[in-house]
Amino acid sequence: MHYNENVKKRFIILILAVLLYLIGPGFIRNGSAFIGDYEVNKETNEISFKAETASSMGFIRCAKTHIEEDTCYVDFYYAFGGLNGKIMAKNEFTINPEDTDYIAVYSSSNGYVIKLEKDTSGNWIRKK
């Protein structure tokens, strides 16, 4: 009987480890993601863009935004399915930066980095 209990415990631990491996990365910010091609809808002020990653591993699941003062901050999150998982992965997103002048993307090495900004005419341009 004691042997069966150890097997059950090990099996449960194995299942939990596999689930953690498959699901866990989906809750981690992707610090190598960036905004690729983008376009602005002048009527709604929404920006649609393709998100890409600088590394060869890691697909993006979602883009979450929060606004502070004049900046819209964007956090990208890994897809589910392990280190290079594609579960729920997508690369096209639309955000509404409302009345902000800057869009900053989270970078694991530099924190938030401004990637888009409004010029003097109110058009969104890529930060140089």
Structure report:
This protein is α+β, with helices and mostly antiparallel strands and 128 residues long. The chain has one domain. It contains one helix and eight strands. The longest helix is centred in the N-terminal third of the chain and has 22 residues. The chain is elongated, with a radius of gyration of 20 Å. The model has no long low-confidence stretch (mean pLDDT 89).
Which SSEs are present, and which pair or pack?
Layout: H1 2-23, E1 33-41, E2 46-53, E3 60-68, E4 71-78, E5 92-95, E6 102-107, E7 111-118, E8 124-126
In short:
By secondary structure, this protein is α+β, with helices and mostly antiparallel strands.
User: Low-confidence segments, ≥5 residues, pLDDT <50?
Assistant: none
Count of individual domains: 1
Radius of gyration: 20 Å
User: Based on the structure, what is the oligomeric state of the protein chains?
Assistant: single chain
SSE string: HEEEEEEEE
Helix content: 10-25%
**Biggest pleated sheet:** 5 strands, mixed
